[in-house]
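FORM 7B: Structural annotation worksheet

SECTION A. Query
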Amino acid sequence: MRYAIERYFGGRDGEVADLVLSIQNGEAGLTLTVDEQPDLLDIKASYDRGGFWVATLDGKIVGTIGLLRYAKRGALKKFFVAKDHKGGGI
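SECTION B. Predicted structure
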């Protein structure tokens, strides 16, 4: 499998949110909603001072990671990989 890692500039927020929520709720057993994670409602604006990247396979988003900047520091957020792709080289 050949994955592509791409900087995310918007347009697929729903697909990103679906992946994140499926992992949070389905795999981790949480009960989170997209409304509780406002960064998922407008990813481009939320991560404009850091960045957001997606891993894709055949055009489907299978992984995500975001970077938020805080002064001279940063915080990684939304680091998720679809279950079928963990350990696959993303």
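SECTION C. Observations
The chain has a mean pLDDT of 95. The first strand starts at residue 4 and ends at 7.

SECTION D. Sign-off
Analyst initials: ____
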